[in-house]
Amino acid sequence: MTDNAKRPMRSLVFLMAGLAWATGPAGAQDLSPAPVPVPALPGAGRPIEKGATRARREALVERLGPGVIAIPAASTRSLERDVLQDNDFRQNDYFFYLTGLEAADAWLVITVAPSGAAQPHLFLPHRNPAQETWTGKRIGPGPDAQRLTGIPNVHPLDSLDRILAGLRRTNPGPLYTLLYYDTATNPRIGRWLEADAGIDIRNAIPVLDSARVIKDEAELVRLRRAIDITAAGQRAAMRSVHPGMFEYEIEAIVEYTFRRLGADRVGFPSIIGSGPNSTTLHYDTNRRRTEPGDLVVMDIGAEYGQYSADVTRTIPIDGHYTDRQRAIYELVLGAQQAAIDATRPGITVGELNRVARRYIDEHSGTLCGERSCNRYFIHGLSHWLGMRVHDVGDYSMPLAPGAVITIEPGIYLPDEALGVRIEDDVLVTPTGAVVLSAGAPRTVAEIEALMQKEPIVP
Ligand SMILES: [Mn+2]
After folding, report:
1. What single string gives the DSSP state of each residue in 135-148?
2. Is the pLDDT of residue 285 over 60?
3. CA of 413 to the centre of ligand 1 (A)
4. Distance (Å, rounded) from C-alpha 258 to C-alpha 308?
5. Dihedral (CA of 208, 209, 211, 217) sign
6. Does 320 score more than 60 pLDDT?
């Protein structure tokens, strides 16, 4: 995938370590330029795709009809009260989907008149200079917020209850909001839900979830970047591992690459399972020391701009698969390719699962004894991918262009400490599918060849 020409000669690696880190094969030069942060925007400050977020709001209005839609942002978490492992703030996915804004404690309200005419309103907390000593600059109600979000009506948060009451009078109909375990604890939604409030309150989540399955162009730009960064993490790990390395060292190479290439955080805890741990599906303790002959399952995903990748590779710690490992690997790879080849609009993930399992049935031979290896493929083939690594959406829905799924068959043989999972991220197109994670080497030959190259991390 990546050309080696820009790397310094091996003998210079130590002298030029800084340069090697800057220009290594998992380098930022592989990515399109990152957007320039907008200082007035909170969070990562990435420019808001105003056209895309407006189109998403219009699609929601179209589906819900007259009434008022009120979507809360997330709040910051407390260093004292919560377990903070990265940032103290990650925006609510639904609020982000409709606004692109990373502001805490905000609300989006969309009015839909009986005529169908819709109007978005953004409510933002007043800025608090004393608090900003701790938090850094926030975005408050004002012209900056209007200009950067493309939402013409911006109000202070403390006027929300009063203005919302007026908007509900002039836009009769249900009040749609987010009803799920997380927002049940939102005091304002709690008040609306009380029986004596007399509000016809309905859940906007099912309609939003079905919309989120189909990614628009702006979403795909972010998701592709998360996936490209993750593929770079896979390549960096492939080059750098050796027997005797601890699993957490491999995790460090992966996550170093993520952050160096601008990922915001991991989309989920990195799974680096070596030897016997390769057969534990969600192993993420990553404390074992690798040994010669181990396979290592690396199931990793960077989050970038609120979107998460999910790419798994299974590599031999010493650079060469044994005959037995290779045979199982080729079986999993063949099943994955069969499912990728079958991916197209109209098919369901359940049908893809059957395609992969049929391949395994037909190609197991005696690899797993008398019977097919299928009984060691102990999880589902696919899940939706997007703002959540296991993204929202109905799995009975036939695939349509713009949907993104993972395709990840695996075979796990605990008695042999031999687990193989291969996972790619696949975009459904009008005519078939595109593998978005092709930047991570996938065949035995590609992986063994890359593992021969000099390590990125000495
Ligand atoms: Mn997955």
Report:
1. H-----SSHHHHHH
2. yes
3. 19
4. 12
5. positive
6. yes
CA of 423 to the centre of ligand 1 (A): 7
> How distant, in Å, are the alpha carbons of 223, 301, 440 from that of 228?
9, 10, 8
Separation of alpha carbons 299 and 234, rounded Å: 9
Q: How many C-alpha atoms does 341 have within 13 Å on its Cβ side?
A: 9
Complete domains list, the chain, with CATH: 50-212 (3.40.350.10), 215-451 (3.90.230.10)
pLDDT (tens digit, 9 = 90+) per residue, 343-377?
999 999 999 999 999 999 999 999 999 999 999 99
Query: What percent of the chain lies above the pLDDT cut of 70?
Result: 92
Q: How many CB atoms lie within 10 A of CB 348?
A: 14
What is the chain's mean pLDDT, rounded?
A: 92
* SS3 state of residue 226: helix
Query: Are 233 and 28 within 8 A, CB to CB?
Result: no
Give the model confidence (pLDDT) of 157-206 as tens digits: 999 999 999 999 999 999 999 998 655 568 899 889 887 888 999 999 99
Paired tokens of 6: 């820009």
Residues near ion ligand 1 (Cβ under 5 Å): 310, 406
Find the 389 Cα to ligand 1 centroid distance in Å.
7
The rounded Å distance from CA 39 to ligand 1 centre is 34
The tokens 């007035």 sit on which residue?
A: 40
Cα of 250 from ligand 1 centre, angstroms:
19
329 vs 131: which has the higher pLDDT:
329
**Distance from residue 399's CA to the centre of ligand 1 (Å):** 17
| Ligand 1 centre distance from Cα of residue 81 (Å) | 30
Identify the pLDDT of residue 181. 66
Decide: residue 166, CB within 10 A, 0-12 exposed, 13-18 middle, 19+ buried: exposed
Of the candidates 308, 149, 281, 142, which has an alpha carbon nearest to the alpha carbon of residue 215?
A: 308
Tokens of 61: 């209005």
User: Which secondary-structure segment (H or E) carries 427?
Assistant: strand 424-428
- Mean pLDDT of all residues in 319-329: 98
Mean pLDDT of 436-452: 98
C-alpha of 307 from chain center: 4
CA 389 to chain centre: 4
